[in-house]
Design goal:
The protein is mostly helical and 198 residues long. The protein is 76% helix and 0% strand. It starts with 10 loop residues before the first helix and ends with a helix.
């Protein structure tokens, strides 16, 4: 399975998956209760920069995460500007950006095997509802790791399109992107079937 995980020896890498997920969740919750104001947006962005400004990750990783979700941010900002003033719109968009990017630290600094173990332990109480914790953990892990893979595929298709002189045509982009995305989904399905997941 393709993931964002990058080996390292920084503080985020050394934390085990459970406490790290809990800590990042608390940071995201803290960010979500800050007021929608200019200073709230600055504090929120500062927290995000602080989380990435440690050994093992850095500003390049932060920038890469933000670029990956740029379209989500543009749509969020545009939608907010229609109904709210600029201050609220910018603060809410920064809040969404920071929540997604800080959550990305979990997959960036935690191997998939550790994520699966942590999710399986957390979902074990669902067993009495006749839900398989292993399968539920796998579905969540696959979902979390698929979004960055699709963003990487989008970049690769765009680069290939530019190399062939295709410009920025949506039609010339959409069909190859759909093909590579479906190929990835097919390969992922085959890999899961080979492991006995149905």
């Amino acid at each position: 399975m393709l993931t964002l995980y990058r080996p390292g020896d920084g503080p985020w890498h050394r934390l085990s998956a459970g406490p790290k997920a809990l800590g990042l969740m608390l940071v995201v919750l803290g960010v979500s209760v800050l007021p929608s104001s200019w200073w709230g947006a600055v504090v929120t962005a500062g927290l995000c920069v602080g989380c990435y400004a440690v050994r093992g990750v850095g500003m390049r990783d932060l920038l890469r995460q933000v670029v990956t979700i740029r379209w989500i941010l543009l749509v969020t900002l545009a939608g907010q500007l229609v109904f709210l003033g600029p201050e609220d719109a910018v603060a809410n968009t920064v809040r969404v950006c920071v929540a997604v990017v800080i959550s990305g630290l979990l997959t960036l600094t935690t191997p998939v095997s550790e994520l699966l173990d942590m999710l399986e332990r957390a979902l074990r109480p669902l067993g009495w509802l006749r839900l398989d914790p292993q399968r539920a953990a796998l579905v969540i892990a696959v979902t979390v790791s698929t979004l960055p893979v699709l963003a990487r595929l989008e970049r690769e298709v765009r680069e290939a399109q530019r190399a062939r002189g295709g410009g920025r045509s949506l039609r010339l982009f959409a069909i190859p992107y759909l093909v590579v995305a479906l190929k990835h989904a097919d390969a992922l399905g085959d890999a899961l079937t080979a492991r006995g997941v149905r």
